[in-house]
Amino acid sequence: MSLEFYLTALIVVATPGTGALYTIATGLSAGPRRSIIAAFGCTLGIVPHMAAALTGLAAVLHGSPMAFNILKLLGVAYLAYMAYGLIVSKPTTSPISEAGGGHTGTSIVTRAILINLLNPKLSLFFLAFLPQFIGATAPDALARMIEASLTFMAMTFILFGIYGLCAAGIRQHVINHPQIATWINRTFGLAFLAMATKLAMAQR
């Protein structure tokens, strides 16, 4: 892959979004190991979108307003649910734990996957992103798109893991100060609500 691809992918992955926000919140509330689990879950949530782009299903999604809007509304509802759980959480609750399901590995991965899976803009993004760096007429176009997709996923996992570990590094300060945990809960809740609003306004 070209240097241009790596730089562009790095900028896209590093830009804070719902996945990064969730990983950071998990690091703050559940520690380093579970923040890595969250990063892994967010990475898995990308797989269906990349598969859709590789198989052409993203083009179908782009051409079907109903399919796009259904997936979008599901994503908005889930982000709003996460936001509500954080905003109304108890003062002593650590970030994200009240947003639906606790800190088990399964619940963390499930939430992380859903956060990325229920975002139709990701499929459209990959439909437009990958072909820019790979000629459609190249004999090895499919293999190169798969390589680019796996590279993007690896970068996502590594950067999100770094975000989560950095957040986990200040976790003790949150645990020892319930008022800080409350403030962080509200902040993350409002951030998820803002992202739900942004997704609700998204167009194909």
Automatic annotation (TrEMBL):
Record has Transmembrane helix as a keyword: yes
Main location: membrane
Domain of life: Bacteria
TM helices/strands, residue ranges: 6-25, 37-61, 67-87, 108-130, 150-171
Record localization: Cell membrane
Pfam families listed in its UniProt record: LysE (PF01810)
Membrane-topology annotation of the record: Multi-pass membrane protein
Coiled coil, from the record: none
Keywords recorded for this protein, A-Z: Cell membrane, Membrane, Transmembrane, Transmembrane helix
UniProt key word Signal: no
Homology family: Belongs to the Rht family.
PANTHER family: ARGININE EXPORTER PROTEIN ARGO (PTHR30086), HOMOSERINE_HOMOSERINE LACTONE EFFLUX PROTEIN (PTHR30086:SF14)
Name of protein: Threonine/homoserine/homoserine lactone efflux protein
